[in-house]
Amino acid sequence: MSDTLTAAAAKPHYSFFHGVERNFDKAASYTRFEKGILEQIKACNSVYQMKFPVRIGDKIEVIEAYRVQHSHHKLPCKGGIRYSMDVNQDEVMALAALMTYKCAIVNVPFGGGKGGIRINPKNYTPFELEKITRRYASELVKKNFIGPGIDVPAPDYGTGAREMSWIADTYASLKPGEVDALGCVTGKPVTQGGVRGRTEATGLGVFYGVRELCNTAEDMKKLGLNTGIEGKRVIVQGLGNVGYYAAKFFYDNGAIIVGLAEYEGGIYSDKGLNLYDVVEHRKATGSILGFAGATEFKNSFDTLEQPCDILIPAALENVINAGNADRIQAKIIGEGANGPLTPEADEILNKKGVIVVPDMYLNAGGVTVSYFEWLKNLSHVRFGRMDKRFSENQNAFILNSVEGLIGKKVTDRERNMIMHGPDEVDLVYSGLEDTMIGSYHEIRESLLSSGASDMRTAAFVVAINKVGVAYEELGIFP
Q1: Hey, which of 8, 172, 220, 371 would disulfide with 181, CB 3.0 to 4.6 Å?
Q2: What whole-number distance in Å separates Cα of residue 125 and Cα of residue 131?
Q3: Quick check: is 352 catalytic?
Q4: Annotated catalytic residue, options 114, 376, 388, 466
Q5: pTM
Q6: Are residues 435 and 290 part of one domain?
Q7: Spatial contact of 24 and 93, defined as CB atoms under 8 Å apart
Q8: Contact 183, 370 (CB under 8 A)
Q9: pLDDT truncated to tens, each residue of the chain (478 aa)?
Q10: Residues 6+ apart with CB under 8 A from 369
Q11: Of 188, 206, 236, which marks where a domain is finished?
Q12: What separation, in Å, do the N-terminal and C-terminal C-alpha atoms of the chain show?
């Protein structure tokens, strides 16, 4: 055996799922549940590994795919489907487990699930991707792993509204006459039963969560920072759906984007970057590198180590680990991606006094708005349809009465703002904002009362308590 092979064999394999279990076990000691209930909460209830043939061009390819249902304490299960060559059973199990805890934290009544197909979607035409997606959906239907009351997938890395519409159509064709068929999947196009605001939901949730931390004076005092988002220096890794919208909402609300990192490299400027100019530059050149006035990093991971107040890793897993955690200069890390920090990195950063806002809370915006879409599909009524006009008429009556009493007229802009009745997207944003604010303070209260040493452990405590109570109330332990 060569030295290279020996070294490779000696190097321990990092298990994402074991990392989640490690965090779970750390938090479990702060809860009251007996070992058996904790083991049931921690275990994946159902793991479906499949391989199916699809004709691609003039050849047949055997596609490897997964769907994991982590917990059945509440149904349906909920979780995205990702298309990536990195998809494997360990990853899908870990992401399904995180979905269980994520839903519990933000009070969304779902069990956790996750799916994945081991392909690089860039290697296939849209027609070929449609064949793969529809075959995957039919396999899920065949084994009863999808349905509005069973398991409801959503987009994830490598997928989007297009793939979700294919899945919904395949499900409906195999379940003729099922009135709630559109509720079998979320993240659909608005014209196919989707909800307005879903596209930006995860990034917006990241913003709302970090903003609430920054608005908490006691937490900011510990970090030596002023309250509020305005003026905070932010680095965002990833300009995909989550990273772009997180950066956009930070930028639009007065934060200073000092660094951006993508797979081709990173850029940094302590004077701040114009997010929209960077996006236009990337559209024109295919890269964020070469942006005028910015320092370049060929290795995008170097960007994460630059000075900032807030770091948002919103792309990949394990990007902050034992090898680079001590060089991170951010005072706040908001986990936009799933699992961007390893447990070893957590320990290093916690000792440095960095506040890590955990993924299982912070990127729950997607599943929260997916819940709203699911409710819309089951009710068969668009949000705002029943009350928008009533609210506008009522607001107009009140405004006219006040103007009559005081003898003054408000400006046209003020009139429009006061009279505006809520559209669907207004209600979605409002519901998401309320969810993220309430859940942040639940976690913070847990941190102060449970004895947990960090926000991730406190978030796990919140989740374990809610899932544990659900299992006890189900009475499934004779």
Answers
A1: 172
A2: 10
A3: no
A4: 114
A5: 0.85
A6: yes
A7: no
A8: no
A9: 444 434 434 445 668 888 888 889 989 989 998 898 899 999 999 999 999 999 998 999 999 999 999 999 999 999 999 999 989 999 999 999 999 999 999 999 999 999 999 999 999 999 999 999 999 999 999 999 999 999 999 998 889 999 999 999 999 999 998 999 999 999 999 999 998 888 889 999 999 999 999 999 999 998 998 999 999 999 999 888 899 999 999 999 999 999 999 888 889 999 999 999 999 999 999 888 888 888 888 888 889 989 999 999 998 778 888 888 899 899 999 999 888 988 889 889 999 999 999 998 998 998 999 999 999 999 887 755 566 665 766 767 677 777 677 888 878 787 777 766 667 777 888 889 999 999 999 999 999 888 888 899 999 999 999 999 888 887 655 4
A10: 195, 197, 198, 201, 428, 431, 432
A11: 188
A12: 54
Q: Name the token pair of 231.
A: 């003026």
Q: How many domains is the chain built from?
A: 2
Tokens of 441: 């303070």
Examine the fold and report which residue of 188, 211, 241 is the final residue of a domain before the chain moves on: 188
Domain residues for 347? 198-387+422-478
Rounded alpha-carbon distances, angstroms, from residue 221 to 216, 225, 228, 261, 267: 9, 6, 12, 29, 30
Residue 391 token pair: 């609210």
The strand ranges marked E within 202-306 are 233-237, 256-262, 265-268, 295-297
